[in-house]
Amino acid sequence: TYDFGDAKKSAVEAYVFAKADRSINSALGAQGGASKMYVPGVRVSTNLLDSLYTSLEYAHQMGTRPNVTTTFKDDVSANAAQFIAVYQLPVAEKYTPVLSYDYTYTSGEKKGTTNDKTNWSPFYEDQNGGKIHNVLFTQSNSHVQCLALQVNPMEDVTTKLSWTNLRLDKDVSTGALTTGNKALGNEIDFNVKYAYTEDVTIGANLGWFIPGKAYEKPEKSQVASQAIINVNVNF
Questions:
Q1: Does pTM top 0.70 for this prediction?
Q2: 129-144: pLDDT as tens digits
Q3: CA distances (Å), 154 to each of 88, 157, 158, 192, in order?
Q4: pLDDT in tens, 189-222
Q5: Quick check: 88 and 51 in contact, CB under 8 A?
């Protein structure tokens, strides 16, 4: 990470992830050898205004990974990008209103490809919880954008209302999805967090996912909902 030391607190960060799968139980079988993937990336961030933080990130995946239907390895060349903007609104300042927007792109599979894969591998992204679409979809072949408003209505209480829109990058025709429409759906989430003490935080989440037109069967297109309550204790 390099900090430019300017008034806008600009910085640039470069990184690389490497993942090797040497499992003898993998689908590689007699083709052997470790499945290796490398993910170099770069992120730049700056405060365009005193109250506006922005960041832009790009990453590329390359290497090989197991093919789930054959004993061969696939050559991987996939891409992902993310833009984030966080703006502290200059109104009702005692409530500290913060408006945020983030957009994430992960590449999908090009039609007609065989052992050359362009769909982004999410690695362990599915361990992230709290939103319904994290359970329904892997972070791949998608355009995901989220607009959120966070407010502190009273001391030690933080609330957040967010809207997330999901679209496919490339057409698919698997399971409940049909070719010809890329609209996966929309999700609305409401979160509240109460700092009971310095070490104890109580939180709750209400969420609704409204399926988009990419769903083919009506019985698969009902609104999904969830309610989560959590307590965090720091020792």
A1: yes
A2: 678 998 888 889 999 9
A3: 17, 6, 8, 12
A4: 999 999 999 999 999 999 999 998 887 665 567 8
A5: yes
